[in-house]
Model the fold of this input.
Amino acid sequence: MHSSVKIRGMKKYFLARLIQLIPILFGITFLTFGMMQFAAGDAVDIIYEQAGSVAEEIKAAKRAELGLDQPFLIQYGRWLGGILTGDMGKSFISGKEVFETFADKLPATIELMLVSILLTIFIATPAGILAAVNQNRLIDYIIRTLSFVGNSMPNFFTGLLLIYFLTLKLNLLPIIGQSVVMPALTLTIAMGAKYTRQIRAVVLEELDKPYVMGARSRGVSELTILIKSVLRSTLIMIITLLALSMGSLLGGTAIVETIFMWDGVGKMAVDAILMRDYPLIQAYVVWMAIIYVLMNLVADLLYHWLDPRVRYGESS
Amino acid sequence: MKKFLATICAAGLLFTGCGGEKTSSTNDKTFTYGTVAYGVAMENVGTNPHESYSGWSTLRYGIGETLFKFNEHMELEAWLAESFEQVDDFTVKIKINDAAKFSNGKKVDGAAVKKCLEALIANHDRAPRDLKISSIEADGQFVTIKSAEKVPALLNYLSDPYGCIIDVEAGVNDNIVVGTGAYKAVKVTDTQIDLVANENYWGAVKPKMDKVIVKSITDGDTLTMAMQNGELDAVQGLPYSSLQLFSGDNYKISQVETSRVYQAAFNFKTPALQDLNVRRAISMAIDKENFCKVLLNGNGTPAIGAFPANLTFGGDKVHALPYDLDGAKKLLSDSGWNDSDGDGYVDKDGKNLELRWLTYTSRQELPLLAEAAQANLKKIGVKLNVNATDNYKTFLKSGDYDIFSKAIVTAPTGDPEYYFTSHIVPGAVDNAGFYDSEQIATLEDELHNTFGAANRSELAIKMSQQVLDDCALIYASHLRMSFVMKPNVEGFTAHPSDYYEIRPELDKK
Done:
């Protein structure tokens, strides 16, 4: 009886979040479409920029073909009508189906996201705990300094440093080979640094709590306290961070993708914006909105699973 | 330490299941080429020449060939065509080389060329307007093209990348077409084209590489370091600042002057610029030598007119005003522009000579030219306000500029008429300065009706000189294009057309 009530509650919450997605999607797609109208030039200007000089008649014919000669609301309405019937349209630039283009790029983005997240967890969790249990000792200072440096460096700089040292100086990895190691390491350095500091802070906070002192006074070993109690408490914080990181990584990391020629959705989105490829930009915006809502939803469900005191929609 | 890092990297590779670049049989001769000029942003992803700018990839990477090609002076030479006959002003009869074959082994005859050109006209957006073809007839190895109006540069237009001859009947599969080039595409993605030697290649020189990999690398630093690391055999599009890293014996560089010119058009609607003396003074104050040497790190050559020296109608066939600050100051003074209030700027009727220089940033050279012009003009007392924006079209529409600077390829098909009709004649779509010359209009009319390269060159020189005499534009520099390669690479040279990169002669010793 109790579990069926729980499942019903979860379903209701899940449904409510999905309904919330509708106005979010409508709002952001409308805003994006509007913002692109204010940007200088349209796809036709960009398409013919390379040709040097192109007669206005050719440009006008292209605009008519792409529907860019219509008023803004009609253009948006057409796009919305298409997407509601499952037609994401065709790219203005490549002429390929938007869905097909997205499906081509997504596996690379997911691969990069998964490897970066796993590497981050494997590095940041032990490093954060190690720093916390050795607070104000040499190892703590080293980890804190490294995480400070890692956190401060922008991704493009980290990527170039990795190329310089791991490839040019040590000749360990190729730059342009299709290996996920270099782009994943670049992302891991920044994320790992951030996670390490957060985990250290949460573990320190937990170690000061009365239940830990109680466990110690009962003779429970430090390792058991750390693994069975403290680590479990830090998981909620890690999940919050992960949900945000996964959301942003699934949106692609344009700079890292460009440096390592990783053919993912981030680079695709930047190219689409530069080329004013509205159907592709809109599809990307929809994807990002869905990802963020879903990631937050999954995080909420996990909070509740880890700590039943947390009600759906609350983080602690 | 190195061992430790190597272990971590190896573990990473195993863990992710993704190794480095997959290499084929060690006996294969593979050429790996990194370029900034391929990709979605260049609109040339794919190999179908009838789509957008994909023909550039077809031609550049040796997949397709055109009926005629350009030599290093941008003069036409036979390629798939063996010869041609200009039957009348509207008709040209072309004989296709009897040996020409598509990569699938099919013979290239008049019927195949006709089909290809008909598909080009039906599908391409720019080609029909350039070619103005009214009918095509095929007879054995001959193809006869009739145009609706006189098109003296028809053969030049047919040598544009969109004119690559492909086997239309074979269709387009996964962005791959069947061409006649020394290599055939086997895989085409947004970031890479994989090519293999065409075993049916008809040309006298057979392809020497087994495989060619063209990689799009848009980040200049990545491109530089990949070349330094030996992962690439050759690169195109290195940042100017990186070129000096490859000046030693470990690399070879091939450079060529292209017809891309950095120019600045005077707006004839600006009252001060309607005075020829003022335009001449400004032109004389631009130090082109130093701009090319210092700001472009030698990757440009000072321009005299719109066309570079390797064209029969370019270089010193025309003459421009020299760099002369004193002469410039005197011209301003002759027109009543003097620094009467001692603020460092010349003035007339109580107003300083202050001008707005509009340009954009997507070409790295243009903001540099604007800064150089600003510094140069200050020396003659002209205040220049630079507006370098990628929103420049809005300013062009509103007319809020006195000088508009841009980069333009003046002779993409080796013929001068395109530049004059697009930028110089009165009312031309890109005549940003509203330059209106009766002499130019008359000469253009003559050019439009003149056949034969020599006659057209002569007219082009007259027109270019007229533009310079009227001081309608300043021509600052021609772009010098550079290919960097390993010392064992042969047959890989930069071409002024920017079309032919992977050729049958390409080899690695």
Chain A touches chain B through 50 residues (CB under 8 Å).
